[in-house]
Design brief:
Blueprint: E1 3-8, H1 15-24, E2 30-36, H2 47-57, E3 64-69, H3 73-80, E4 84-89, H4 92-108, E5 113-118, H5 128-136, H6 147-157
Parallel strand pairs: 1-2, 1-4, 2-3, 4-5
The structure holds adenosine-5'-diphosphate (ADP).
Length: about 160
């Protein structure tokens, strides 16, 4: 079975993430969406909230599963015996950082390949941080996130 890990903070999961996940499943039999547990970052949504939202997005599609990890990604990749790591690339600005991470991961875990998918035109400028900023300021970006995420962003805004 061809298994890939799609890691990220997903705070929150956007249509850009959804697009990458849906396209990656054409290349792999199963994709684990792995939510990073990073204590250093101050997220808007807790890991539990993020996992619950992503599970709702993919409910009924058993080609995807949602898990959390902390520490080194390559340790998680080895534990799962995955063959690949999926990453999305938006602009040249993503490339610099992503190539550093991918080359370090290749060094630490040569058995796993990092597969980059280009962001689709509609999602080139979608990032979790801009989504949070606009939503919390009252802007309507409901067409850039899955419905469950929009619902939860509205809930955060009203509390
Ligand atoms: P990070 O892992 O840096 O915290 P994110 O959780 O925001 O980043 O995103 C996880 C992965 O999805 C990264 O590879 C990122 O480049 C990619 N990604 C984020 N937004 C988009 C988008 N709009 N289109 C395509 N890929 C994206």
């Amino acid at each position: 079975m061809r298994l890939a890990i799609y890691p990220g903070s997903f705070d929150p999961f956007t249509n850009g993430h959804l697009d990458i996940a849906k396209r990656s499943i054409h290349l792999f039999d199963h994709v684990i969406i792995a939510v990073l547990h990073n204590r250093a970052k101050k997220p808007l949504f807790s890991v539990e909230e993020r996992v619950a939202m992503i599970k709702e997005i993919f409910s009924g599609d058993n080609r995807f599963s949602v898990e959390t990890f902390s520490g080194l990604l390559v340790d998680f990749v080895r534990e799962k015996k995955a063959q690949a790591i999926i990453r999305g690339l938006r602009a040249v600005s993503d490339f610099e950082f992503e190539i550093q991470v991918a080359s370090m991961n290749a060094h630490l875990c040569p058995e796993a390949e990092t597969v980059f998918l280009m962001a689709s035109e509609d999602n080139l400028f979608v990032s979790s941080s801009i989504i949070k900023e606009i939503a919390l300021l009252g802007g309507d970006i409901s067409d850039k996130v899955p419905p469950v995420v929009w619902r939860e962003l509205c809930r955060k805004r009203n509390t």
